[in-house]
Amino acid sequence: MLEKESIPAIAIVTDAFENTAREMAQLWGVPDFQFVSMPHPLANMTPAAIERASARLMDKVVGLLVRGQRDAGSHQPNEGGAPGDDSR
């Protein structure tokens, strides 16, 4: 993991894969790893909808990059919009 090398990094996962992300973090030895979560699925989103969802996540992404994993004990998934919401 890049964070172990002091390189700020984040993972963005869809909510359908949050449990898998947590399990992988445990396997990598960082059970409190924080990630940004957005609604699943992405496959049926238009490029414009993906851009809107990305814009909503930007503050969370930048905040986690700046803060790093040092506050990992306070992990809470971050939502990028409601599933099925085409305004994403």
Shape: flat
Low-confidence stretches: 73-88
> End-to-end span in angstroms?
30 Å
Q: Strand pairing plus helix content: what structural class?
A: mainly alpha
| Number of E strands | 2
Share in helix: 25-40%
Radius of gyration: 13 Å
Number of domains: 1
The percentage of residues in β strands lies in: 5-15%
The order of strands across the largest sheet is: 1-2
Q: What profile does the largest beta sheet have?
A: 2 strands, parallel
Give your account of this protein's structure.
The protein has 88 residues and is mainly α. It has one domain (8-71). It has two helices and two strands, in the order βαβα. The chain has a two-stranded parallel ribbon with strand order 1-2. The longest helix has 21 residues, at 47-67. Residues 73-88 have low confidence and may be disordered.
Task: Present the secondary structure layout.
Elements: E1 12-14, H1 18-27, E2 36-38, H2 47-67
Parallel strand pairs: 1-2
Keywords:
88 residues; mainly alpha; 2 helices; 7% strand
Brief overview, please?
The protein is mainly alpha-helical. It is 35% helix and 7% strand.
